[in-house]
Design brief:
Elements: E1 6-7, E2 10-11, H1 26-29, H2 33-37, H3 47-50, H4 52-57, H5 61-66, H6 70-73, E3 86-91, E4 94-99, E5 104-105, H7 108-117, H8 122-134
Antiparallel strand pairs: 1-2, 3-4, 4-5
Amino acid sequence: MPCPWYRGGVCTSPKLRRPSSSVVSPSRCLGSEAEYRSCQFYVEPRQKQQRGGLLEAAKPAIAQQLKPYLPIHLLSAKPRSGCPYLKVYSYSGGYLAYCEVLGRLLTRSEAASCEKYWQTCPLRRVAEQNAAEAT
């Protein structure tokens, strides 16, 4: 049985500031319980966290649909953008930024640009033009 903090090639231990693939060792993370318990990032999961299968099924539908790759999509701070096409979801101790115009999650750098330059975003202009033409 793999380490309960290993998900999708990423360590999600609460000892880390954000999920990271840099501390992952497949032989340890996917090895025996004795192996992954010896890891410096291992902590005993609480009772609710031990039922990984149930929690996985109970994830928000949006996360199941979007399938975020945490090293590039998980934001540590909630984006503050005035863009009406940006949707922010709370996920796995952080946030996911979803652009309705692109129809996908934004990476960390894209989310930072969206925060700063949303008023001059060409995607927003195209979306507003399409909305005006549709009416």
